[in-house]
Structure formats: structure tokens, C-alpha cells
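Figure S4 source data
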Amino acid sequence: MKTIVGLASTTHLDLDGDKMSKRALISMANQINNHYSSLDIEHLGIYIGVMLAAKVKKLNDGEFGLSVVAGIFDSERECGKYPYKGENTVSKAYMHLLSED
């Protein structure tokens, strides 16, 4: 499995004029850190990986972002190791990848 780190969401205004609250980002981080969440393509249900860890960070412009570590599956066999909504037993092991810059 390859791991990637990036922003999954922010409190910036999006293209639809919607804005996530910091509270919503914190809730999403808690969900990811407690239960495996799927990484799929455009919400189509094509399961390509798993969210492994998450943390809310203050961004340089004062807004907040949900920083995540995601794993991209190399094979279908890996998918079974991280059952959707199963207990996330690895988030602490990946949290160091989300340390402050």
C-alpha cells in the first residue's frame, strides 16, 4: 500500500459557495481516527484505499484544514485488512506524518 498525505477538506468557501465549519472538520478527523473510512473516486463507491489518520490544522491564511494520511491499495487483498467502518487500529502509527510543518 502506498501512503499519501494531503488536505481532504478546508474551511474555505468552495466552488458551490459552501463552507465547512472547523467543528465539522474536527468531527471528520475523529471519525477517521476511530473507524476506517473509504477512499473512493468521486463518491462513486469505487473503493481504492482507506483513510488512515487525520488531524485538523490551522492554515497559513487563518482558515483550517483536515489533513489526512490515506493508503492506496496495491491489491484487492489489502482492502480486506481495512474494513469500511471497522475499528481503526493504525491511526496512531500514522499520526507522525501529520506533524506540524
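Figure S5 source data
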Amino acid sequence: MRTRELADLLSAHAEGLNAGRDLAGDLLAKQPEAAPTLQPLLGLARRAQAALRPVEPSAAFVSTLKAQLTRPAAPAPAPAPAAARPSWVVLALAGVGGLISLASAVLFVSRYFSGGARRMRTAL
């Protein structure tokens, strides 16, 4: 039996149980070749239906829940303060580091084009 057919039979059985009718006999008669697979599943569905009972919440629970859901929301927490700006010392050090990087790049390029790099390549 295909999975889709089995699902349809179990769905029909569940709908019957919800309506107060047990259609297990009718379903097994329609599909006798599926009885070995279907019978335990229908029994399990019957036992699950018997175990499930409708539950009504108490009036106190309902009123407490309604009060919690209808009260105004707590204000959102204040956003974290923005990070403090770096001091002038940090900015000065960053500028010096940038100048050193620029000077080293200029030195490298000037040596490369002046032939210093060719001498190094021939030495290797």
C-alpha cells in the first residue's frame, strides 16, 4: 500500500473518531490487503482518542491571562551609549603609522624603478 493511500485511510479514521464514530471495520473491509499494517495504527488512534480529553481552563487562569495580555507593554530599554570618541593621542599615533606606511611604500617603489630590484634579482 502506498503512503498516500495509508495517510488517506488514517485521516478518514481520525475524522470519524472526532465525529464520535469508529470507522476501523469499514476501512479494513475496503482494504483487506492493508489490514496487517492498518490495524495496529487504527488501534493506536483509538487509544489516543480515548486518552485525550477536552480541557477547559479555570476562570481565574483566563482572567489572569487576559490582564497580562492587555496591560501596556514595558518601555523598551534605553539603547547603549555610543562608543566614546578616540582621544587625540590615538588619532596622532594612527596618523604617524599611516605616514610610516606611506614612506615605506614610496621607498620601495623608488628602489624598484631605480634598478635596485634588478640587482637583487640577478643576485638570486
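The helical segments are 3-18, 24-30, 35-51, 59-70, 88-114, 116-123. The first helix runs from residue 3 to 18.
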